């Protein structure tokens, strides 16, 4: 029978409005740019992490090299890996991996 596995997206916790943390928490490579630039956790940052996981499942690698700011560029879907991926899936990935300017 199929197994379902759950994982958190780098930084899962309950926080009160008064809680603050000025240190980076999360998993490098999965954290949204606004999380890396400053302590901005949001629903959009969670969607970014979902996009990273989706990309990794389809391409068998992370979309952006760790330790770089290459996420400032668009995600590369030009390799042969992407030829069999539907247009709808690619559009979803592009929307999930969109940099949030406002944080």
From TrEMBL:
<feature type="domain" description="Protein kinase">
    <location>
        <begin position="1"/>
        <end position="103"/>
    </location>
</feature>
<dbReference type="GO" id="GO:0004672">
    <property type="term" value="F:protein kinase activity"/>
</dbReference>
<dbReference type="Pfam" id="PF00069">
    <property type="entry name" value="Pkinase"/>
</dbReference>
<dbReference type="GO" id="GO:0005524">
    <property type="term" value="F:ATP binding"/>
</dbReference>
<dbReference type="InterPro" id="IPR000719">
    <property type="entry name" value="Prot_kinase_dom"/>
</dbReference>
<dbReference type="InterPro" id="IPR011009">
    <property type="entry name" value="Kinase-like_dom_sf"/>
</dbReference>
<protein>
    <recommendedName>
        <fullName>Protein kinase domain-containing protein</fullName>
    </recommendedName>
</protein>
């Amino acid at each position: 029978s199929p197994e379902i596995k759950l994982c958190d997206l780098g930084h899962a916790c309950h926080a009160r409005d008064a809680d603050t943390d000025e240190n980076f928490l999360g998993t490098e490579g999965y954290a949204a740019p606004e999380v890396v630039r400053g302590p901005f956790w949001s629903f959009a940052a969670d969607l970014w992490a979902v996009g990273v996981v989706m990309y990794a499942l389809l391409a068998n690698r992370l979309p952006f090299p760790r330790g770089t700011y290459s996420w400032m560029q668009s995600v590369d879907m030009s390799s042969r890996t992407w030829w069999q991926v539907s247009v709808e899936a690619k559009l979803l990935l592009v929307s999930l991996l969109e940099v949030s300017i406002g944080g």
